[in-house]
Amino acid sequence: MSRILIIEDEEAIADLEKDYLELSGFEVEIRNRGDEGLQTAMSQEFDLIVLDLMLPGMDGFEICKKIREEKNIPIIMVSAKKDDIDKIRGLGLGADDYMTKPFSPSELVARVKAHMARYDRLVGSTQKNNDIIEIRGIRIDKTARRVMVDGVEKAFTGKEFDLLTFLAEHPNHVYTKEELFREIWDMDSIGDIATVTVHIKKIREKIEYDSAKPQYIETIWGVGYRFKV
Amino acid sequence: MSRILIIEDEEAIADLEKDYLELSGFEVEIRNRGDEGLQTAMSQEFDLIVLDLMLPGMDGFEICKKIREEKNIPIIMVSAKKDDIDKIRGLGLGADDYMTKPFSPSELVARVKAHMARYDRLVGSTQKNNDIIEIRGIRIDKTARRVMVDGVEKAFTGKEFDLLTFLAEHPNHVYTKEELFREIWDMDSIGDIATVTVHIKKIREKIEYDSAKPQYIETIWGVGYRFKV
DNA sequence: AGCATTTTATAAAATTTTTATAATCTGACT
DNA sequence: AGTCAGATTATAAAAATTTTATAAAATGCT
Fold it and tell me: Which of A1, A5, A82, B40 is the most exposed place for a label (fewest CB within 10 A)?
């Protein structure tokens, strides 16, 4: 469930926004003063903030700047004056969107959704879902230790799974066989690096359409391997 | 330097946008047809796309969807009809911004900058792109060991990559072939210096427009080479 | 035994180095 | 200034080396 913070002094407006957002399944908090709003934004976790410009206690400019110093979450700025909007945009203080009052609550909902979706697309995919890695046709469920290739489950042995997972968790990064060996096997074990090659081959047999032209695990000649994205 | 792709069939508009963006230090490519635009977007690396809705070859909806399947970069959609804008927004196909024609070029520039800044804020920070060397049209990603020349990826072998990277990391510094050899090959190996020459040639074939008039790796006669900046 | 893992041997592929030759530059000498 | 010799670099292609892919056998584990 996503949490939204509305910092807005006109209670009627704030309540209306809250109603609409809650109908769309969001959890909403309201603060009526600027200073309280900032304090709340900093001390709790929200997924998006709707921020009015004119506020008692502390104005929206200041709040936006302060939040941005600490957090990357989407901020939608709201103002009654079109001129103010242009001004903030010019200041470039990192708000993600700007709306002029009056606006329809459903437009707010639409924008909120769009910003959340983008944020997830950019950040959520890399940071959050640590359990499931999904890259193109491949889906790796870490806790269940299962791998699906184009919707079909393939059986992986322990080492194969660990190796594939490690590569997929660091897409595009090239690792030498030594690095992979140290990572998957024991840190200092002095086994033969050739076993990495063999495991790569086994993995490719399971995930690649044509093992000679790998789409996922690429060989970097003289260096190592990488999971291409 | 950031690269922007404009997909727009009205050449006058495209050129105007290009001029303004270039004045702000962006590198701009234009495509006049939808299908060509998509093809370019997929085969090269851009940091942002400005996409018109009505296009010959393939419409903006389709293009936006296709790009989103593969890439996360910001897309600004442009249309002459306000209604269309609402429609696309409703479709939620992942565009990052919407502008109605006519608009002032400076507003486009402002929005482009804002989107770039956000993208950097969200992605650049999490992905830690601090091992990327960028000089004029060349971008070297050290961990991924990839080289982009004007947005197009070129395949480099191990030694070629190491040599180019070393030179690019010390721009303008002139190195003798002996120094380069000691640096890239084993410190004391007494192999033939000629191999450095050959590798320089191979690199030039990949990054220089005209190998006879090198723009990047310059020959200092009787001394060695340097990466010119 | 049955499966996973590692080792080994050989084939195949790609890169690196060498070699030979052509082109270009520099400085000295007319 | 023009030209020539010597030195240096560019280019192309062949040879050598290195690295990886593959298959199969050996080992180890439960």
Answer: A1
